[in-house]
Every structure is written in C-alpha cells, then in structure tokens.
Amino acid sequence: xxxxxxxxxxKQGRRNVxxxxxxxxxxRAAFYDHQCxxxxxxxxxxxxxxQIQAVHKDSRGRYGAPRIHAELxxxxxxHGRKRIARLMRQAQIIGRAPKRWKKTTxxxxxxxxxxxxxxxxxxxxxxxxxxxxxGDITYIRTWEGWLFLLVTVIDIASRRVVGxxxxxxxxxxxxxxxxxxxxxxxxxxxxxxxxxxxGCQYTSAEFAGxxxxxxxxxxxxxxGQCWDNALAESFLPHSKAN
Length: 242
Prior knowledge:
Blueprint: H1 4-12, H2 17-23, H3 28-36, H4 40-58, H5 65-74, H6 81-90, E1 132-142, E2 145-155, E3 160-167, H7 172-186, E4 192-196, H8 205-213, E5 216-220, H9 230-241
Parallel strand pairs: 1-4, 4-5
Antiparallel strand pairs: 1-2, 2-3
Helix pairs in contact: 5-6, 7-8
C-alpha cells in the first residue's frame, strides 16, 4: 500500500511530517525521495530494462545475461554485465540453459576385459564376408515417444546390415536379439568377431553367454573413442535420415 499520499496530505495541511512518517513507519528521506521522482540512475535502469526485454524476446527467450550483454554492446550500448544480470533478476527474465549431455555408453566395471580385434580396420573385402561384424545402439523419436533402435549388426566386409532389433527399452535382451537374428540369418563360421563400444549391455555377462553359445568372439573399442567403432557410428545418422 502506498502511504506517501497520506503524508503528502499532512504536509499540505501544514501538519507534522515527521510525526506522520513515524506513524506510517516510513523514513522522511524516503518520503522526500519519492517527491523528487525517480533518479537519473533509475530512469536509465528502466530504459535498459526495456532494451533487455526486447533482446530477450527477439532471442525467443534463449539469451541469458552474457549473450544479452554481448548483443547490447553490438548495438552500441555500453553497460556492465552485472548490471544487466541484476535487472534481469528484478524482472525475472531467465535464459534457457542447454540440456546436460546424457551419457549413454556406460561401461560395466566388473565386465571381463576384451581386446580390440578390429583396430579401426573397416576395409571392405568380399573374401572376408561373415568374419567381422560391428554394431551400435541409437535413439529415434517417433509420434509415440522414444524408440530405442539397434539397426547394427553390420558386416564390415560388405557394409550390409545382417541383424537388427527394435524395442522401447535398453535392456541387454535388445542387443541379444539383434545378434541372434544376425547369426540365424547368416550362419557364420565359428569365430566371427563382433565389435562394439563398451556400453554395459555389450559388456554384460548375459550378452557374453549368448556370444559364447553362438561361437561369436566379442571385441570392444576403447572408452571415449567413437572412431574405434566408426563404421557403426557413421551408419546410424543415415538410418535416421531415411
């Protein structure tokens, strides 16, 4: 509630302003500041606040204080970044922070150690069909939500998808189904190498048991080295585009 009109009325009636301020719990300095109107600094802050809102609106609500500060400097306005951040807080203007990267390749710490039998050799060679495979998992958004798609068991020699599986989960049975489908479709000789990253599904005991039953040798790339599985990684964007 604005009490200054009551104090102003007391002043116009030549009554005691000090007593009125004490009763309404307002300092006399605040009352006289109100009479003088907004200061030059407050007027500049109000104008700067309108400029901030305009830039924030033009950015579709994405820009925070650093980018709004940079944009205003580009327009020729010289203001401190902290001042802009203060005015944004007062106006409750917030930029959009980028989403944190969700790490999906999570190695199993108790998984058995396996070597990289491919060593980035993805040479196409018709004489080596069904001897070296590779695979990976990707995500595809559909109208019904996320669909986890494994389209790769890929034959390195022919670049052909020899097995795949679809599901709405990331359990080990998804990649197990893909490998089982590839073995059933191609009937490779014992010892075919299946290369993948170090995701916990690929390093699980369940998947290792299936590979042993199918006489498939498992090979793993190094942690954080997507190039070790470059053939499967490069295939996935094409599967999404189509």
